[in-house]
Each structure stands twice: as structure tokens, then as C-alpha cells.
Amino acid sequence: MIGTIVCMSTLVFNYFKLQIIARIVIALLPILLTSAYAGYINHAGTTPAPSLAMLALSFTLVIFLVFDIREKGYLITLSIIAMAALLFMDNINELLELEMDNEVIITGYLSKATIAISIITGGGCILILANQNKTSGEKSQKLLKKSKEANDLLSGKETELKEHLKKIEEAQEEEKKRQWAGEGLAQSIKLMRDHEEMQQLYDDLISFTVKYVEANQGGLFVLNEDNKEDLYLELVSTYAYDRKKFIEKRINIGEGLLGQTYLEGKYVFLKEIPENYVNITSGLGKSNPRSLLIMPIKVNEKTLGLIELASFNEFENHQMAFLETLGENIAATIEGVRNTSRMQRLLEDSQQQAEEMRSQEEEMRQNQEELQATQEELARQKSEMEEEIASLKQELEDYRKKEPENEKVEDKKVTDNPSTEMQQEQSGQPAQAQHLKTTQSMTNTD
Question: Is the whole-model pTM more than 0.70?
Fold first, then answer.
């Protein structure tokens, strides 16, 4: 009855979600009831019945049925309690005793039944434990398999994640390089926009380029086109170069490494520098650079010059790409400045020609005014001469009308005074003849 009541209590514990207490009651109930039963039926001072001891021992296996091997705390605690119940069965006999004949239980058929029950209970527990062990093993294998699959999947995911992170890092690195190049180009454009004097621009450009790419030395060469028959590369600016290297600032087209690079129009990157080609000078002395870069500066496929850089470090691909773009901007600036200078010269020449044309126009205007004045004077003189000619014609006409009368008078005078006639023939007649000639000449001219 007590056992039935206790078992019913487990249902109450489960109802209130006290599963742990219910499991403890079920695990300890069989062995405790067996110990109490043995205490009641065995007399004080006697050894407990072997069948009851065997039954109590078999009930200890119930603990391992109720609790999992992973619940070590409960297993150890409950096992200690069960072993204490077995060890102290003698003491329980002294506390609990009934006056009854226990021969039937000790040696009779109840003893055999108890032994059978204990064997069945122990074997059943062992079989259940074995089955649980097998099931646990299968579950463990499945779990191991799933765990391996999960690990493989995680490994694959981890590999993918690492590759993805690597791609992200590479993308971030590329973005840093693009940002670095963009900032450099922006600074160079600002530098070129803020300068008007070319030599200062050349000096600032080569200084900026060497510092930005972390080189050690640099030189800027520009194509000299002053004489179309004699083109050459002119060293217009240097940074940290030994002066002895560039005593001669002229590099002929096709001459040496620089001249050949200009002809080919492609950059040259050397890791093995020719002996005595260039030395980097510092406070510790002179030494050969580890890398040399000669970058053409071109615009519209036309090479306008070269940038030569020497460094103790090797130039990376993004640095060379930046220098190529920078070279295009420098070439465009140089071409723009040259075009501006050319246009300025043409404008000055056109202004000078316009000034000369204005001066000529003024001179022609003055000449035209003088010519007009001369024409007016000639017209006035012509008018006066025409009036004079008209007057002379009138006089001549009057003279001709009066000539017969004059001849009569003259004849009379000659008759009266022959000497006077002779004088007139000597003096008067030539003068009159000359006056008639002059009058006739003016009439012909008119």
C-alpha cells in the first residue's frame, strides 16, 4: 500500500512539472521498500534473508534506468543512498520488527520467489541497460555522423567564409589603392592648376611625384620643340639627383635608355640597374637603387617627355598605373600651356599686325586727305586757268575784230612816220607774236 501511494505521488509530481523529484522517488522506492520489508520480517540480531538482500541489490540497477549516464551527480548521490540502505539493513532490523514466523520467507517458497524476482529484476535491468546502451550507441553513431557532416559542412562554410573574407580584404585593398590613386591625382591636378610659371610647376611636380610614390630620386624630361629640325629631351627638373649625373641636360632622341624609351613610348621597369647608371646619395654614402622606372608622359598617343624614378623599394602595379595616369595629366598640362603660349604669341602677332594695319590705314587716310587737298587745289588752279583762258580768248577775239582797223591806223602812221613803223616792226611785232603764241598754247592745253 505504501509503495502504491508513493508511486501515485510521482504522478502528482509530474503534473506539477517536478519530473526530477518523481524520478528520484521511482529510483529509490524499490530498494527502500525492500530494506524496510527486510527489517520487518527479520528478527533482531539475525542476518537478513539472502533473497531479500539479492532483491534489494537488483533494485539498485533501477537508478541507472531512471537517470542517464550523463547525469552523474544524481547517479552518484542515489547510488550512495542505495548502498547505505543495503549496508545498514541490520540496523533497520533492530528498528523495525514484527513477531511472525519468517521461515517461509527465509527458506520457503517465498525465498525462491524473491530470488526469482531479483534475478528477473536484475536481468531485466541489465537487458534494459544493454538496450539503452545499444540505442545510445546507435544514437551516438548517428550523432557522430551528423556531427561529422555538420563539421564537414561547417568546414566548407568556413572555407567559403575565408574565401569570402579574402575577397573582401582584396576588395578593400583594391579600394584603398584606388582611393590612394584618386587622392594623388586630385592633389596633382590642384598643383597644376595653381601654377602659372612653368619652371616652378616642373619642380613641384617632380617633388610631389617622388614623395607620393615613396621613391628616392626623380627627374622630369620634356621634349624641346623650339627647333623642328633638332628635337631633343631636356631635363627641366630633378629631385635628390647627384648634380654630376646631369651636367648635360640634353638627351637626344634614341640615345641611351631614356631616348630609346621615348621612341618606344612604353614604360621601362628595371630591377637590375646598370652599373654606375644612377646612385642614391644619402648621409651614409652612395648606393645603387633596387628599382628604376622610366614612365613616358603622353597625350593623344604623343609623347611629350619622361619621368625617371629611382627607389630602394620595388614599384607596385598600382603605383605604376597611377604614374601612367599622372603622366597623361602632366602631358595634357604641358600641351595646354604650350598651346596657350602659342595662341598668346599668335594673338600678340595679330595685335601687332592690326596695329600696323591701323597705322597704315591712318597713313593712307592722311595721304588721301593730302591727295584730296591737292586735287582741290588743282581744281581751283584749273578753274582760275580756265577763267584766264576764257579772258584771253575774249581779248584775242576782240583783238582779231580790231585788227583791220589797227592795220589801217598803222598804215597811216607808217605813211606819216616811216621811222616809227620800223621801230614797231623791230619791237612791237615780236611781243605781239609771243602773246599770241602763249594764248594759243593755253587754249590747246585746255
Answer: no
